[in-house]
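Z., the sequence and structure:
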Amino acid sequence: MIKKHATTSATFSGKGQTLGGEPAAPDIVGEAKNTFDGAKAQFSQLDPQLKVLLGLLGLYFVFWFFR
């Protein structure tokens, strides 16, 4: 019954439009990648002991959240 209604076997070929009908901003992905690369560069410059401390604090909050 589903095959009867299917017109193609191709994947979704949308044009990236929002519900309002205007095209989605293509720069969002590039901007997010630039922000992530900047944060990664700053994190790599941190002292190794500070990285360990931040990791342990992060794990503490994850365990505290799921307790």
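The chain has a mean pLDDT of 79. The CA atoms of residues 6 and 12 lie 12 Å apart.

Let me know what you think.
H.
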